[in-house]
Design a protein that fits this description.
Blueprint (H helix, E strand, L loop, with lengths): L4 E5 L4 H13 L2 E6 L18 E5 L12 E4 L6 H4 L3 H22 L2 E7 L26 H21 L3 E6 L2 E2 L10 H11 L3 E4 L5 E3 L1 E2 H13 L2 H10 L6 E4 L4 E3 H10 L8 E4 L14 H7 L7 H15 L1
Parallel strand pairs: 1-2, 1-4, 2-3, 4-5, 5-6, 6-11, 7-10, 8-13
Antiparallel strand pairs: 9-12
Bound molecules: nicotinamide-adenine-dinucleotide and uridine-5'-diphosphate (UDP).
The site of nicotinamide-adenine-dinucleotide has 29 residues, from helix 1, helix 3 and strand 5.
C-alpha cells in the first residue's frame, strides 16, 4: 500500500492522539503540529520513537509549511472551560488556523479533513439534528467563541472548496469520550469518572435533565479514516445526488442520555462508589438536547457506532484508574 504523508493539527490532544496512533499503525507517516494548549506530550509519548512519527511545536494561527498528502485539522480547544479561558485565541485558532491549513492545501494540493462540531447547531430547535439544519446559535454568548469560530471555519472550508476546488471533507462531531481525555478537561464524562473514582461529589449542572449523545472515540476514528479514504469522485457524486455541494456529515452515537442518567451509569460501573450527586447552576447557553441524525454517515460509509455507552465508559474508567 502507498505510504501517505499526513499532517494532524491538534494531534497531541485527545482525539488527535488516537488518530495519529491509528494512522501510524496503518503504515502512514504522521506529523503532529500542536502548541500544547490543551494537548500533552504524554498523549503521544508512545509514538515519539517511531521513525514514521514527528512532532512540531507550533501555533496554527501562524502560517506553516510542509508537503503532505492529507491534512486533518483538529487544532482547537474543545472543552467549554478551556475554550472560554481565552475566547479570542479560540476564535483565532478556528478561523486563522483553518485558513492556514487551507492555504497550505491550496499550494500543495493536499486533501483536507476538517473537524467541526455539533455545537454549530447551538441549542437546537430540531431534534435529532440533521446536517441540513442551520442551527440556533447565540453570536455574542460565552460559548460563541467556539460555536461561531467553528461555523466560520466551516464557511472557510466551503468557500475554499467552491472557489479554489480544494478537496475538503468535514465532520460535525457529537460529544466524544475515551482514554487520553485530559484529567482537567472539564467535560462531563472525565469530570464524573474522576469524581466517582475519588469518592467526591458528582457535579450535575442544572437539574441534570439536559441530554447528550456520547460516542466512544474508536467509533469516531473509524468514521474519520473511512471518510478521508474515499475517492474524490465518490464523495462528490454522493453529495451532489443529494443536492449538497459541500461534503459534511454528522458523526456521533445517537443513543441519548440525560446527564443524570450518565452520572448513574458511571457510579454503577465503579464498585463501592460512595459519591453522591450535587446540583450546581447550569452554565449560560448550555444546549438542552443533543442527538445526531447519522443517516448520511451510515449511507456514505456503511458506518454505525459499535461501542455502547457502558462498554466505552468501562474502558475510560480503566484508563483513569490507572492514571490516578
Ligand atoms: P483537545 O483539546 O484534546 O485537542 C485539541 C488540540 O488542539 C490540543 O492538542 C491543543 O493543544 C491543540 N491546539 C489548540 N489550539 C491550538 C493552536 N492555536 N495551535 C496548535 N494547536 C492547538 O480536544 P479534542 O476533544 O481532541 O478535539 C479535537 C477536535 O475535535 C477539535 O477541533 C474539537 O473542536 C473537535 N470536536 C471534539 C469533540 C469532542 O467531543 N471531543 C466534539 C466536537 C468537535
Ligand atoms: N456537565 C455537568 N457537570 C459537569 C460537566 C458538565 O452537568 O461536571 C453538563 C454540562 O452542563 C452539559 C453536559 O454536561 O449540559 C455536557 O457538557 P460538556 O462540557 O461535556 O460538553 P458540551 O456542553 O460541550 O456538550
Amino acid at each position: 500500500m502507498l505510504v501517505k504523508k499526513i499532517l494532524i493539527t491538534g494531534g497531541a490532544g485527545f482525539i488527535g492522539s488516537h488518530l495519529a496512533r491509528r494512522l501510524i499503525a496503518r503504515g502512514d507517516e504522521v506529523t503532529v503540529l500542536d502548541n500544547l494548549f490543551t494537548g500533552t506530550r504524554s498523549n503521544i509519548y508512545d509514538l515519539q520513537d517511531n521513525h514514521r512519527f514527528s512532532f512540531v511545536l507550533h501555533d496554527v494561527t501562524q502560517p506553516f509549511w510542509g508537503q503532505f498528502d492529507e491534512i486533518y485539522n483538529l487544532a482547537c480547544p474543545a472543552s467549554p472551560i478551556h475554550y472560554q479561558r481565552n475566547p479570542v485565541e479560540t476564535l483565532k485558532t478556528s478561523f486563522l488556523g483553518t485558513m492556514n491549513v487551507l492555504e497550505l492545501a491550496l499550494k500543495t494540493k493536499a486533501r483536507v479533513f476538517h473537524t467541526s462540531t455539533s455545537e454549530i447547531y447551538g441549542d437546537p430547535e430540531i431534534h435529532p439534528q440533521p446536517e441540513s439544519y442551520w442551527g440556533h446559535v447565540n453570536p455574542i454568548g460565552i460559548r460563541s467563541c467556539y460555536d461561531e469560530g467553528k461555523r466560520a471555519s466551516e464557511t472557510l472550508c466551503a468557500d475554499y472548496a467552491r472557489e479554489y476546488g480544494i478537496d475538503v471533507r468535514m465532520i460535525r462531531i457529537f460529544n466524544t469520550y475515551g482514554p487520553y481525555m485530559h484529567q482537567q478537561d472539564g467535560r462531563v464524562i472525565s469530570n464524573f469518572i474522576l469524581q466517582a473514582l475519588r469518592g467526591r461529589d458528582i457535579t450535575l449542572y442544572g437539574e441534570g435533565d439536559q441530554t447528550r449523545s456520547f460516542q466512544y472515540v474508536d467509533d469516531l476514528v473509524d468514521a474519520m479514516v473511512m471518510f478521508m479514504g474515499l475517492p474524490s469522485e465518490t464523495v462528490q457524486a454522493f453529495f451532489e445526488k443529494r443536492g449538497m455541494r459541500i461534503p459534511v456529515i454528522n458523526v456521533g452515537n445517537p443513543d441519548e442520555y440525560t446527564i443524570l442518567q450518565l452520572a448513574e451509569e458511571i457510579m454503577k460501573l465503579i464498585p463501592g462508589c460512595v459519591s453522591r450527586c450535587v446540583y450546581l447552576p447550569l452554565p449560560k447557553d448550555d444546549p438542552r438536547r443533543r442527538k445526531p441524525d447519522i443517516r448520511l454517515a451510515a449511507e456514505l460509509l456503511q458506518w454505525h457506532p459499535r461501542v455502547p455507552l457502558q462498554e466505552g465508559l468501562s474502558k475510560t474508567i480503566a484508563y483513569f484508574s490507572q492514571r490516578m
